[in-house]
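Quick illustration, no need to memorize.
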Amino acid sequence: MRIPASKKKETAPLLNGRGFIINYYRHSVALNSKRKFALFSACNISGTEWKNIPRKGNFKKDTRVSGNYQFGDELYNAIRASGLRPNDFEQGHLTSYQQVLWGKTDAQRRKAANDTFYFTNCVPQHERLNVGLWRSLEQYILKTQTVQHQLQVTVITGVVLSDNDPYYIKKINGEYVKIPCVFWKVIYYPNNRGLNAVGFMMSHTQLLVQDGTVVFKKSAVRESITGAGTSDNLFMDYKYDSVYQVKVEFIQKVTGLKFMLKNVHLPYQRDEKKSVLYKRIEVSPGIAFAPGKHKESPLDYKLKGITL
């Protein structure tokens, strides 16, 4: 992936002066300095060395980047203290802790998992998306395809940091905070045609608006609260594909990032107007999964319909 010069200007620099890519054990992140959320989080997954281990960990700030460029407990604790429903937002991983659970030893898997619990790899995500459809997509990528078919894949995840994003209903320590609404993933994977790439997008705008946790007018934001301390159809048959699959080129357009597309097969080529696509990827309350914490459950996908 290439980051254009215009996007590099938006990145948060490392304190050691060595660029802006924050490297972890199994993934890498670049932060947007103004919005304080990641431009992207990228990881590789080895289906041959993947093994599940129990989830544990708490998010913390990364001291390699100035705290002025990353939201932490001041945002998420303030949200919890807001008096709104307790699960309006969760701390949503971009690179999920499960995606990096590969290696030759459990010690390597634990190190990789622990490294995902940094706020640099986190965005506010409505609970019904975080443990619902978004998690369903992550499980499909990981277990139904990568592990089952013993693949080596790359997953790049991020949010669209749009000027039109709504504001959180209250200031956080006196600051207006825009909440990213659109989540995206680009997956690179091999098959008998060579290297392929597919894209997915989901939006939780409707869920946030229904809960009253965001507003679109700055004047509607309330005063501050302070928080305490190898088959041909791989990756192309996710059962909600008709709603959430998009062209990789569209993700490239709305994020301003440049994905590696030369000599890459792009099987999904449905052209749509931007306004139509954004309506299509909206996760409505009627389709969002019921809340439930991060539990392992059997995969019940009837995989069909995605075009390779």
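The CA atoms of residues 25 and 112 lie 5 Å apart.
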